[in-house]
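Q: I'm building a small set of examples for a reading group on sequence design. Run inverse folding on the following structure and report the sequence directly after it, with nothing in between.
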């Protein structure tokens, strides 16, 4: 099934005065409506290619969840990718945003509550497993058909809040795979306490299967989250450090609130995942 027909293209450049917490996006942005047979819904896919993009060249690809929520997380990540490329901290990078179509000029928020969780508020099963299949079976093949992936740096999955929860879910669900869909993960203030700390259950299910987790994980939370979030974070960080010696992990508590954590977590997460520096 052919999906990779991009409907609009936009060249972007830095404005004269930019917000230092949200650098200007350079390069080119394309977007498409992407229907999913598995989910039964349509996604808004944004793709940023760097300046001097060469279709014959291989690039690392970053997949941004919640692309159009929380004040447009795609633009935040694409902006930091632009700035870090310009400073030489990371190589030229493609950023793919996975979002939801706009309604009445506002991004729809309903899909993320279905796609990013394993248990809905009313106790019914959530759609995280199906959404992960959508990424691996439908979206990634379409992106691979359009862009050349750098095998050395591979794919990075990045998310905040519920998106951060799903990022960790994807890490643990594919942790024992010999050819995982994502090799690098940036989880910014993920909702670790959802499902009563259920993300620890997914790590606990992985642990008996392997002590090897050759991935890169940038895991940040906000200082002003409350005691429960910090409890889950401390438990998760400790077990990751003790159980998976080959996991390259950076885990920090940032002096921010839930929204303020995004900019430094995305910036430093990109640098850690693609450039190796913290």
């Amino acid at each position: 099934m052919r999906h990779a027909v991009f409907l609009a293209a936009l060249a972007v450049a830095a404005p004269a005065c930019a917000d230092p917490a949200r650098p200007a996006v350079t390069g080119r942005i394309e977007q498409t409506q992407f229907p999913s047979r598995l989910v039964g819904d349509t996604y808004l896919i944004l793709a940023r290619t760097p300046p001097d993009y060469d279709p014959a060249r291989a690039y690392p690809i970053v997949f941004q969840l919640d692309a159009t929520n929380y004040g447009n997380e795609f633009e935040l990540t694409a902006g930091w990718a632009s700035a870090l490329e310009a400073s030489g901290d990371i190589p030229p990078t493609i950023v793919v945003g996975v979002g939801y179509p706009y309604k009445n000029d506002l991004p729809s928020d309903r899909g993320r509550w279905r796609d990013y969780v394993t248990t809905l508020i009313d106790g019914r099963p959530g759609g995280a497993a199906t959404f992960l299949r959508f990424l691996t079976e439908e979206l990634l093949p379409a992106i691979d058909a359009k862009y050349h992936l750098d095998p050395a740096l591979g794919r990075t999955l990045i998310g905040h809040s519920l998106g951060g929860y799903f990022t960790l879910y994807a890490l643990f669900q594919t942790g024992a795979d010999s050819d995982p869909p994502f090799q690098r993960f940036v989880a910014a203030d993920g909702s670790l306490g959802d499902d009563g700390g259920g993300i620890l259950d997914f790590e606990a299910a992985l642990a008996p299967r392997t002590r090897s987790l050759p991935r890169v994980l940038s895991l940040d939370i906000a200082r002003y989250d409350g005691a429960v979030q910090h409890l889950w974070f401390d438990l998760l960080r400790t077990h990751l450090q003790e159980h998976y010696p080959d996991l390259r992990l950076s885990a920090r508590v940032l002096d921010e609130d839930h929204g303020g954590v995004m900019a430094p977590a995305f910036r430093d997460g990109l640098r850690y995942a693609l450039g190796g520096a913290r």
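Residues 128-146 form the longest helix (19 residues).
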